[in-house]
Design brief:
Structural class: mainly alpha
Number of strands: 2
Strand order of the largest sheet: 1-2
Strand content: under 5%
CATH class of the largest domain: Mainly Alpha
Number of helices: 14
Number of domains: 2
Shape: globular
Distance between the termini: 65 Å
CATH superfamily of the largest domain: Cytochrome Bc1 Complex, Chain C
Length: 385
């Protein structure tokens, strides 16, 4: 038994040595390549803080809101754990959006990193599911009505839509069974997400990292991950932790909605139902289309379209550093996405709906038309050279 334990420990030590100490990385990585390790840190931090919160949370419609108040007021440092968890989710999504944005800018979705991109998109979808489920658990007004709106998306499925909604609810309306199911899934999904993160990590080490120039690198162009990039990762972690702790200690409720501090009441509808800020761009897309079925379909296409980039965005010059026109359209896409989030937070007036419709068209056009067209002309330019 002793020799078996020694063998397991030596194997783990060799794996850690191979994957962290002797792992070779391109020599020209900038600080945007810190985002992956920062995302991994926040995932681990969310799991740890969430584990402590489950010790005091009660998944029952009569006691859920009061259990949150108990955590905040009576549990020693409960307020700190709760604010670390709620603000940690926001920072986790912020880092993931920046991580995806970096992948778009440097065309990290192209061969041989197709599987790396697909696994990252699956992680993002699982994050969205876990984030939505976590938003429901405090059982405030906004939690209840956001759950009502989002679960009703399933009604657009032909024939069986309503049956599926009733199955998800565990009845004919959102009730205690719904909250129990959401709590169970919210607890389990991060562990499923962790499995995909490990797979993402494995594929990364198999294909090696992309780089800021988008060029193929060989062993002579690479350096050890430790200590050169571990020191950069540590600097990035300290930098982001400063802003994270400022939010936790000084502005803990800035990213939350005030209506969520009112106990859920099915008889009173909030004047303006909004999800968390990281879902607002897609909510802005949904509200800009008057037809419910068409709006939900376009919203899901706008989410899934990024996963199709390995098919629509094949490039010969990977980095946008050498493509001024690509840079212009890319940053226009980023600002368009941010503005969609702003529109999602505003009252759906006629002008906001019209602007949202224009922004929605550009969001889809960028992925399905602009990127392929630009890459086609870049390809012709490379061939002529």
């Amino acid at each position: 038994m002793r020799f078996q334990n020694i063998f397991i420990l030596s194997t783990l030590q060799n794996l850690m040595h191979a994957y962290f100490v002797k792992y070779l990385s391109p020599i020209n990585l900038n600080y945007l390549w810190n985002l992956g390790s920062l995302a991994g840190f926040f995932l681990a931090f969310q799991i740890v803080t969430g584990f402590f919160l489950t010790m005091f949370y009660t998944p029952h419609i009569l006691y859920a809101f009061q259990s949150i108040e108990h955590i905040m007021r009576d549990v020693q440092y409960g307020w700190l754990i709760r604010y670390l968890h709620s603000n940690g989710a926001s920072f986790f999504f912020l880092i993931i959006y920046m991580h995806i944005g970096r992948g778009l800018y440097y065309s990290s979705y192209n061969y041989p990193r197709n599987l790396l991109w697909f696994s990252g998109i699956i992680i993002y979808f699982l994050m969205m599911g876990s984030g939505f489920l976590g938003y429901v658990l405090p059982w405030g007004q906004m939690s209840y009505w956001a759950a009502t709106v989002i679960t009703n998306f399933l009604t657009v499925i032909p024939v069986v839509g309503k049956i599926i909604v009733y199955w998800v609810w565990g009845g004919f309306a959102i009730n205690n069974a719904t909250l129990n199911r959401f709590f169970t899934l919210h607890y389990l999904l991060p562990f499923v997400l962790s499995i995909f993160v490990l797979y993402h990590f494995y594929i990364l080490h198999k294909t090696s990292s992309n780089n800021s120039l988008g060029i193929k690198t060989y062993k002579i162009d690479k350096i050890n991950f430790y200590p050169f990039y571990t020191s950069k990762d540590l600097f990035g972690l300290v930098f982001i932790l400063i802003f994270y702790l400022i939010f936790v200690f000084f502005y803990p409720e800035l990213l939350s909605h005030s209506d969520n501090y009112i106990n859920a009441n099915p008889l009173v509808t909030p004047s303006h139902i909004v999800p968390e800020w990281y879902f607002l761009p897609f909510y802005g897309i949904l509200r800009s289309i008057s037809d419910k079925t068409y709006g939900i379909l376009i919203m899901f296409i706008s989410i899934f379209c990024v996963g199709l980039l390995p098919y629509f965005g094949k490039v010969y010059i990977k980095s946008n550093v050498f493509k001024p026109l690509n840079i212009f359209f890319y940053w226009f896409f980023v600002f368009n996405f941010i503005y969609l989030g702003y529109l999602g937070s505003q009252t759906p007036t006629t002008i906001n709906i019209l602007i949202g419709l224009i922004c929605t068209h550009y969001h889809l056009l960028y992925v399905f038309y602009i990127i392929p067209i630009l890459n086609y002309f870049n390809r012709r330019y490379v061939i002529e050279i």
